[in-house]
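Q: What residues go here?
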C-alpha cells in the first residue's frame, strides 16, 4: 500500500505536542501516512491563508478563525474538534504603557498578527461582549509575538491578545505586561482540512484523525507529560501543570452544532461576517 503524504501545520505551542509525539514514535508511518509539519508563527490567519493557497492540507487552528474564513470562501472543512476546553487569551501591553486593567481597552490601538487572525477576531468579540465596538483603523498588523514585543514597547500599539501560557515567559521576563484575560465561549481549537485532501485521500485523513485522537488520549492520561512539556517548551513547571490540568483534547471527531451556531452568532454580532452572508457547509460529511 502506497504512503500518503499529508502536509499539516499548527502554532509552535504545547497544545500540539501529542501530534509530534505520535510522529516521533513512528505511528503515522506504520499506518502508511507521512506527515510534513509546518510551524505557523503567525497563527490562525497565516494558516487560513495557507489552506486557501494549497500550501498545506490540514491545520490545527482557532475555531472562530476557520469558521469565519470558510464562510468567506476558504475551500476547506472542519473535520474534528481538537482542544475542547476554551482558550485563555492573555491581554497584554508594553512595559511603559500606563494602561491598567481597569481602563477601557477598546478605544486603544490593538496589535494583531494579521487580519482575520485570532488576535484580530477576539479583540472585536471581546469588545462586542462588553457593548463596545472597534473600527478598522484601530488594528496594526505585527505578524507574530516578536513583532508585538517591538510594537507594544515602542508604544505604537497598546493591546495584544495571545494565548496566556505561550506569552507568560515574556511576562515573567519583564518584556511585556499582562493586564487582563479573556476566555473564549467555545472550544479553542479545531482541525480543518482542504477540500482537495478530503476528495483525494479521505481514508488517510480518517486514519490520521484516529492516530491524533489516540495520542491525545494517552497524553491526557500520562502525568509524565507535564515535565516533558515544560522542558520542551521552556516553560515553568507550575505553569505547565496548571495548563495541563485545565486542558482537554477531543477523543473523537464529533463536532457540536450548537458550538458552530454560537460562534456564528458572535461573528455576526461583531460584524466580522454579515447576516446576509450565506453559510456554506462547514463540517466534513463522511
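A:
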Amino acid at each position: 500500500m502506497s504512503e500518503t503524504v499529508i502536509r499539516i501545520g499548527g502554532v509552535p505551542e504545547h497544545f500540539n505536542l501529542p501530534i509530534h509525539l505520535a510522529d516521533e514514535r513512528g505511528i503515522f508511518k506504520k499506518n502508511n501516512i507521512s506527515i510534513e509539519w509546518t510551524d505557523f508563527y503567525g497563527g490562525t490567519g497565516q494558516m487560513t491563508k495557507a489552506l486557501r493557497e494549497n500550501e498545506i492540507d490540514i491545520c490545527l487552528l482557532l475555531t472562530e478563525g476557520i469558521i469565519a474564513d470558510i464562510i468567506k470562501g476558504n475551500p476547506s472543512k472542519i473535520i474534528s474538534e481538537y482542544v475542547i476546553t476554551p482558550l485563555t487569551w492573555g491581554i497584554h501591553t508594553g512595559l511603559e504603557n500606563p494602561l491598567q486593567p481597569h481602563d477601557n481597552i477598546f478605544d486603544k490601538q490593538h496589535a494583531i498578527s494579521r487580519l482575520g487572525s485570532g488576535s484580530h477576531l477576539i479583540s472585536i468579540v471581546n469588545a462586542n461582549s462588553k457593548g463596545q465596538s472597534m473600527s478598522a483603523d484601530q488594528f496594526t498588523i505585527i505578524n507574530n509575538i516578536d513583532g508585538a514585543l517591538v510594537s507594544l514597547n515602542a508604544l505604537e500599539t497598546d493591546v495584544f491578545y495571545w494565548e496566556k501560557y505561550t506569552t507568560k515567559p515574556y511576562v515573567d521576563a519583564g518584556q511585556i505586561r499582562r493586564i487582563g484575560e479573556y476566555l473564549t465561549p467555545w472550544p479553542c481549537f479545531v482541525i480543518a482540512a482542504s477540500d482537495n485532501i478530503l476528495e483525494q485521500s479521505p481514508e488517510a485523513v480518517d486514519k490520521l484523525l484516529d492516530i491524533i485522537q489516540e495520542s491525545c488520549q494517552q497524553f491526557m492520561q500520562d502525568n509524565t507529560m507535564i515535565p516533558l512539556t515544560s522542558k520542551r517548551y521552556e516553560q515553568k513547571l507550575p505553569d505547565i501543570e496548571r495548563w495541563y490540568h485545565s486542558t482537554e483534547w477531543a477523543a473523537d471527531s464529533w463536532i457540536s452544532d450548537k458550538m458552530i451556531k454560537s460562534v456564528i452568532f458572535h461573528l455576526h454580532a461583531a460584524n466580522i461576517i454579515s447576516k446576509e452572508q450565506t453559510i456554506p457547509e462547514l463540517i466534513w460529511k463522511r
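A: Context that may help when evaluating the design: The longest helix spans residues 202-221. The longest strand covers residues 76-83.
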